[in-house]
Amino acid sequence: xxxxxxxxxxxxxxxxxxxxxxxxxxxxxxxxxxxxxxxxxxxxxxxxxxxxxxxxxxxxxxxxxxxxxxxxxxxxxxxxxxxxxxxxxxxxxxxxxxxxxxxxxxxxxxxxxxxxxxxxxxxxxxxxxxxxxxxxxxxxxxxxxxxxxxxxxxxxxxx
Length: 159
Hints:
Oligomer: single chain
Number of helices: 8
Strand content: under 5%
Largest sheet: none
Radius of gyration: 17 Å
Distance between the termini: 52 Å
Shape: elongated
Order of helices and strands: HHHHHHHH
C-alpha cells in the first residue's frame, strides 16, 4: 500500500469539466469516481499556477497519486508541471532547486510551442538564483524561438 499524501481542498465550483476533452478522455481507464478526482485536481493546477504555484504543485502531486496507474503525461503537460514546480520552489526561496527542476533535455527543443515557456522559465530561474550571465544566454535562446514575441526575452538578454 502507498502512504497517504496531503491532499489540498478542491473548490466546490471546480468540476473537472474545465479540462480539454482530450485530457479528460485520457482518464477513462480510471473508475468514474477516481477520474473525477484526478480531473478536478488537474483543473486546480490551471487555476492556481499563476497565483499560488505551491498549491498548484500540491494539486499536481495529488492528481499523480490518484492517477498513478495511467500512462505518463504528454510532453506539454510534463513541461507545465516542471514550470509550476519550479515556481513553487522559488516561492519557498529554494532558488537552486527551482533551476534544477527546469534542467532537462527539452531545453534543446526549438520546435514545440512549449519551448518558449520552458526556456523563459529557465532563464528567469537562473536570474533569480543570481546566475546573471547564464540567464542572459538563456533569455537569448528563448528569444531565438519566440517568433511571436510573447515574452520580453530579447530585452532581458540585452541587459
